[in-house]
Each structure stands twice: as structure tokens, then as C-alpha cells.
Specification:
disordered N terminus, 314 residues, elongated, binds heme C, 0% strand, single chain, mainly alpha
């Protein structure tokens, strides 16, 4: 799927327009819509039935999918078939297939299209969709999923998440191609290992926890504090030192050693700044900036539980 930039821009404009309209109209307009929907939906006489649809239409790749499994009582197949998503179709059938008389979610606004899916998909990992970052920016279910023509698992419109997300988040995906990265490109992890794109209670749509640290330590449990001696920036955020999407430094560090540490520890009595070259020529200080640099000695940089670990040496 390709959603060109102008669509998201248009989306933003729409969102603003909707927000303004919402300020004035929301209270009056909102309750009215579901009522009519329910009224039409409840009358069984308005439905033609899936078999009727299939007399004119091909099944359009829906048969093999999760939606067509009748043994799942919540599936469209077990309820109204095609009309679970397309709405009652009797009028459309009687008019010999009049386009105007049937709902095509693909031709509706982003929000309205998502509304055809959310009645069934509004629980568990989908519970926080409304008002989530994607929802707010007019990225809807159909921006990422195709019910009839999926290209990847989970009815995704692209062959995998890297390709899908890369359509809009190119800069982030590109960092996967840096020298050190999590094994996303290798297929052992995916964007959704860390993110829940359907909405979350954490920042940046992170899946686990309520802070960046909690999200990282949901897998890297040994880095979870509190330690006897905490290192302030670690308790603050792992991303102070690591880029979760990849970097050209070892261990996905945001800067090379010793600069990584010296962004903060510059004028302490130990060590001197790297600019003080004269100290390196003759001194024991050289070992402080070569090799693994600071962490050759300060091994427990994430925090220490040793009674004498105040300087993270053990
Ligand atoms: C009598 C034949 C016939 C039957 C039965 C029928 N359709 Fe159609 N349908 C058509 C025709 C013809 C079109 C228009 C195709 C076109 O112009 O591209 C169409 C178009 C559509 C569209 C696209 C509308 C749009 O705006 O692009 C949808 C969705 C659709 N049908 C769903 C259904 C569903 C769901 C059922 C069963 C309730 C159904 N159809 C039954 C003939 C039929
Ligand atoms: C789970 C929801 C869902 C079910 C079930 C479903 N559709 Fe669709 N259909 C969609 C959506 C969403 C679109 C809009 C196109 C898109 O983005 O995938 C669509 C588009 C269409 C279109 C018009 C676009 C095109 O590809 O020509 C037709 C015709 C159609 N569906 C027919 C059917 C028929 C017939 C069935 C039952 C056999 C059916 N649909 C079942 C969601 C559904
Ligand atoms: C009538 C209820 C219903 C509607 C409407 C519905 N779905 Fe589903 N959907 C289901 C059920 C049930 C499953 C199977 C879930 C499971 O196995 O946990 C499912 C599964 C899925 C899956 C997972 C497919 C897989 O291979 O694992 C995706 C993606 C999905 N739906 C997207 C959509 C989208 C997009 C729409 C709106 C166009 C939609 N659904 C509308 C009931 C629905
Ligand atoms: C930004 C892209 C994106 C959007 C927008 C999106 N999805 Fe998904 N969806 C995914 C990806 C990626 C997966 C597979 C990873 C996962 O399960 O989180 C997925 C998985 C799913 C699944 C199967 C797994 C599960 O959680 O049950 C369903 C069902 C689903 N989406 C429905 C929806 C519905 C309904 C909407 C709209 C309200 C929607 N999605 C919007 C990308 C998206
Ligand atoms: C159709 C375009 C589109 C696709 C595809 C898409 N996104 Fe997004 N995403 C957006 C937009 C627009 C925003 C809102 C950006 C903003 O507010 O700065 C967003 C926001 C996000 C955010 C939150 C950023 C923040 O600052 O809070 C994350 C995380 C994210 N997307 C991850 C993903 C992942 C993972 C995928 C693939 C499964 C994906 N997105 C697919 C358009 C898209
Ligand atoms: C190891 C966990 C992890 C993985 C895997 C991951 N992300 Fe993230 N992502 C994060 C964290 C943590 C942040 C917040 C970064 C920050 O605030 O500095 C973030 C932020 C983002 C943002 C917001 C923009 C930004 O740079 O802050 C987007 C968009 C995003 N990720 C998309 C993706 C996509 C697309 C993928 C898959 C290619 C992906 N992420 C894989 C953890 C992850
Ligand atoms: C879903 C589980 C998961 C989450 C969440 C996660 N990681 Fe990882 N992390 C991994 C896996 C798997 C590896 C690869 C281990 C390997 O290759 O041996 C890894 C490797 C790493 C590495 C070492 C890379 C290298 O070059 O050896 C660092 C650093 C790292 N993660 C930091 C983080 C940070 C920071 C976060 C939070 C933004 C985070 N991780 C979130 C699973 C996760
Ligand atoms: C003050 C900077 C800093 C912060 C903040 C930080 N790290 Fe690290 N991290 C490092 C350095 C430096 C290394 C490389 C250590 C080495 O080479 O022995 C490293 C290595 C790692 C590794 C791979 C090697 C190992 O020890 O397992 C993982 C995984 C990791 N960090 C996860 C995290 C997580 C999770 C957080 C947040 C809770 C975090 N880091 C916060 C500096 C930091
Ligand atoms: C984002 C800023 C920041 C970064 C980057 C950083 N630190 Fe720290 N570090 C701190 C703060 C703040 C303290 C707590 C100072 C205090 O309590 O007086 C601290 C404390 C320490 C201490 C203990 C100081 C004491 O008083 O005993 C050591 C040792 C240390 N850091 C080493 C490192 C090393 C090695 C690195 C690089 C891997 C590093 N730090 C990166 C901010 C940082
Ligand atoms: C050869 C081992 C070694 C190396 C390499 C090393 N340190 Fe240290 N560091 C120490 C020792 C020993 C202490 C004193 C511990 C104590 O007082 O208990 C110390 C103390 C510190 C302190 C505590 C506060 C202070 O000013 O005394 C900070 C901060 C610190 N080091 C940062 C760094 C940084 C940043 C680097 C890398 C540029 C670095 N160290 C490299 C051994 C080393």
C-alpha cells in the first residue's frame, strides 16, 4: 500500500477541521449516528446474505482468512458474512448492484472506514485505539491492513512490518541498516516487539510498561533497578545512551566512548577531558580512553549491587 505524503497532510488538515467542528458539534452530533446505524443493522430484512453476494461477486480472497472461519462465533462469516463489514445489502442487490446503495469502506473517510472494524476489534491490545497517535493523525485500519488483498501476515498491506512502517517512518527504518541494531532486519524481532501500533498507555506507542525503561527491561530484566547504587541516567531513560533503532557504535550507543560518558562527566577530577592530550602522552590516563574506555573499569555502568560499587567498578 502506498499512502503518499499528501494523504497524511490532508489527514492532518482533516483532523484539524474535525477537531474544530468537534468543539462545536460533537455533543450534538455524536449520539445521533450510532442510533441510525443500529436501527438499520437490526432489521434482518435488510440483509441479502453472503450466498446472494457471491452470485455476482467473487469471494475476493476472504475465504481463506480468519474472517471466514465460521467456527469462530465472533467472525464475520459466523454473523452477517460480507455484510458484517459492508452493511445491509438488500437494496444494492435489488438495484442490480447499484454502487451507491452499498458501503465500500475503501471509499469512506479514514475514521469511518475504521468504524467498520472497531465494533469487533476493540478489546485487549486494541482497547486504546481511539485517540492513539495513529488514529489522531488519520492513519486507520485500512492504511495498514487489507481484508481482500493482503500482502503479508495479519492481513498487512506490505510483505512485512519493516516495509509497511517504512512507507511513513523511513528515517526510523533506515536506522535498522546501521552497523548495530536489534535483530529486526534479520526477522528475529519486529517493530511490534516493542510497539503496539494500535494504541498504548506508554509513550511512543511502546507496548510494555509505562516508561521507556520499563519497556526495555521487559526483555532486559537484569538491567531493571533499583540497584544499591543507581546510575542516574539509567534510571532516567535507556535512550540517553542507546538508540533503540540502531547506531553505528557498539551496543547501539548514541555516541562513541569516551564521549558517551563525557557528555556529562567532563570536569570531574577524574578523568580529564579527552582534549587534554598532554596527559595522555606520558600518563596512566591513556587507558581511560582506549579500548572499551571508561567501561573497562566502570563495568557496572547500569548500576551496581556491590556494597563498594558506588563508582560502578564492580
Ligand atoms: C446482482 C448482482 C450483485 C449482487 C447480488 C451483489 N452485488 Fe455488489 N456489485 C454489483 C455490481 C454490478 C457492482 C458495481 C461494480 C462496478 O461498477 O465496478 C457492485 C459493487 C459492489 C461494491 C463496491 C461499491 C463501490 O462503491 O465501489 C461492494 C462493496 C459490493 N458490491 C458488495 C456487495 C455485497 C456485500 C453483496 C451482498 C449483500 C453484493 N455486493 C451483492 C453487483 C452485485
Ligand atoms: C472484514 C470486513 C470485510 C468483509 C467480511 C468483506 N469485506 Fe469487502 N471490503 C472490505 C473493505 C475494508 C473494503 C475496502 C477495500 C480495501 O481497502 O480492502 C472492501 C471492498 C470490497 C469491494 C470493492 C472493492 C473491490 O475490491 O472491488 C467489494 C466488491 C467487496 N468488498 C465485496 C465483498 C464480498 C462479496 C464479501 C463477502 C464474500 C466481502 N466483501 C467481505 C471489508 C470486508
Ligand atoms: C464481525 C466481526 C469483525 C469485523 C467487522 C472485522 N473483524 Fe477482523 N477479525 C474478526 C475475528 C473474529 C478475527 C479472528 C480473531 C482471532 O482469531 O483472534 C479477526 C481477525 C482479524 C485480523 C487478523 C488476521 C490474521 O490472519 O490473524 C485482522 C488483521 C483483522 N481481523 C482486521 C480487520 C479489519 C481491518 C476490519 C475492518 C475492515 C475487520 N477486521 C473487521 C472479526 C471481525
Ligand atoms: C500503523 C499500522 C496499523 C494500523 C493503523 C492498524 N494495524 Fe492492525 N496490525 C498492524 C501490525 C503491524 C500487526 C501485526 C503485529 C501485531 O499483532 O501487533 C497488526 C495486527 C492486527 C490484528 C491481529 C493481531 C491482534 O492484535 O489481534 C488485528 C485484529 C488488527 N491488527 C486489527 C486492526 C484494526 C481493527 C485496526 C484499526 C482500528 C488496525 N489493526 C490498525 C498494523 C496496523
Ligand atoms: C500511513 C502512514 C503510517 C504507517 C504505515 C505507519 N505509521 Fe506510525 N505514525 C504515522 C503518523 C502520521 C504518526 C503520528 C506522528 C506524529 O505525531 O509525529 C505515527 C506515529 C507513530 C508512533 C508514535 C510516535 C510518537 O511520537 O508518539 C510510532 C511508535 C509509530 N507510528 C510506529 C509505527 C509502526 C511500528 C508502524 C508499522 C507497523 C507504523 N507506525 C506505520 C504514520 C504511519
Ligand atoms: C527495541 C525496541 C524497539 C524496536 C524493535 C523498535 N522501536 Fe521504535 N521506538 C522505541 C523506543 C524506546 C522509542 C522512543 C525513543 C525516544 O523517545 O527516544 C521509539 C520511537 C519510535 C518512533 C517515534 C519517533 C522517534 O524516533 O522517537 C517511531 C516512529 C518508531 N519508534 C517506529 C519504529 C519502527 C517502524 C520500528 C521497526 C522498524 C521500530 N520502531 C522498532 C523502541 C523500539
Ligand atoms: C522484545 C524484547 C526486547 C525489548 C523490548 C528490548 N530488547 Fe534489546 N535486545 C533484544 C534482543 C533479542 C537482542 C539481541 C540479543 C542478541 O543478539 O544476542 C537485544 C540486544 C540489545 C542490545 C545489545 C546490542 C548489541 O550490539 O549487542 C542493547 C544495547 C539493547 N538490546 C538495548 C535495548 C534497549 C535500550 C531497549 C529499550 C529501548 C531494548 N533493548 C528493548 C530484545 C529486546
Ligand atoms: C550511561 C549510559 C547508559 C545507559 C543510560 C544505559 N546503558 Fe546499556 N550500555 C551502556 C554501555 C556503555 C554499554 C556497553 C558495555 C560494555 O561494552 O561492556 C551498554 C550495554 C548494554 C547492553 C549489552 C551488553 C550487556 O551488558 O548486556 C544492553 C542489553 C543494555 N546496555 C541495555 C540497557 C538498558 C535496558 C538500559 C535502560 C534500563 C540501558 N542499557 C541504559 C551504557 C548505558
Ligand atoms: C546523561 C548524563 C550522564 C552520562 C551520559 C553518564 N553519566 Fe555517569 N553519572 C551521571 C550522574 C547525574 C551521576 C550522579 C552524580 C552524583 O550523584 O553526584 C553519575 C554518576 C556516575 C558515577 C559515580 C560517581 C560518584 O560520585 O561516585 C560514575 C563512576 C559514572 N557516573 C560513570 C559513568 C560512565 C562510565 C559513563 C559512560 C558509560 C557515564 N557515567 C555516563 C550522569 C551521566
Ligand atoms: C583504569 C580504570 C578506570 C578507567 C578506564 C576510568 N575510570 Fe573512572 N574511576 C576509576 C577509579 C578507580 C575511580 C575512583 C573510585 C572511587 O573513588 O571509589 C573512578 C572514579 C570515577 C568517577 C567518580 C567521580 C570522580 O570524579 O572521581 C567518575 C565520574 C568516573 N570515574 C568517570 C569515568 C569516565 C567518564 C571514564 C572514561 C573517560 C573513566 N572514569 C574511566 C577508574 C577508572
Amino acid at each position: 500500500m502506498l499512502v503518499p505524503r499528501y494523504v497524511t497532510r490532508l489527514g492532518l488538515a482533516l483532523a484539524v477541521a474535525l477537531a474544530i467542528a468537534g468543539l462545536f458539534g460533537a455533543v450534538a452530533a455524536k449520539p445521533a449516528a450510532p442510533e441510525t446505524k443500529v436501527a438499520v443493522a437490526q432489521d434482518p430484512a435488510n440483509y441479502a446474505g453472503e450466498d446472494t453476494c457471491l452470485t455476482c461477486h467473487e469471494d475476493k480472497g476472504y475465504k481463506g482468512t480468519a474472517h471466514a472461519r465460521t467456527f469462530n462465533e465472533k467472525s464475520p462469516a459466523a454473523s452477517k458474512g460480507c455484510e458484517s463489514c459492508h452493511g445491509p445489502g438488500r437494496e444494492h442487490v435489488e438495484a442490480g448492484g447499484d454502487k451507491e446503495k452499498i458501503l465500500n469502506p475503501g471509499k469512506k473517510g479514514v475514521r469511518q472506514a475504521s468504524d467498520t472494524c472497531t465494533p469487533c476489534h476493540d478489546r485487549a491490545t486494541h482497547a486504546l485505539w481511539d485517540g492513539s497517535q495513529h488514529d489522531m493523525r488519520q492513519v486507520g485500519c485500512l492504511s495498514c491492513h487489507s481484508v481482500h488483498n493482503p500482502a503479508g501476515d495479519k492481513q498487512l498491506k506490505a510483505k512485512d512490518e519493516v516495509a509497511l512502517c517504512g512507507q511513513c517512518h523511513r528515517a526510523v527504518v533506515n536506522r535498522q541498516f546501521r552497523f548495530n541494531h536489534m535483530p529486526v532486519r534479520e526477522g528475529k524481532m519486529s517493530c511490534s516487539s516493542c510497539h503496539n501500533v494500535h494504541g498504548s498507555s506508554n509513550v511512543k506507542l511502546l507496548k510494555a510498561g509505562t516508561t521507556i525503561d520499563e519497556s526495555c527491561t521487559s526483555c532486559h530484566a537484569e538491567k531493571r533497578g533499583p540497584f544499591l547504587w543507581d546510575h542516574a541516567p539509567v534510571s532516567e531513560s535507556c535512550t540517553t545512551c542507546h538508540d533503540p533503532h540502531g547506531s553505528n557504535n557498539d551496543r547501539m550507543l548514541v555516541a562513541k566512548q569516551p564521549y558517551l560518558c563525557q557528555r556529562c562527566h567532563v570536569t570531574s577530577r577524574h578523568p580529564p577531558t579527552v582534549y587534554e592530550g598532554y596527559l595522555l602522552q606520558n600518563s596512566q590516563n591513556a587507558n581511560k580512553i582506549f579500548g572499551r574506555s571508561c567501561v573497562s573499569c566502570h563495568q557496572q555502568v547500569h548500576g551496581s549491587n556491590a556494597p563498594s560499587g558506588k563508582a560502578f567498578l564492580r
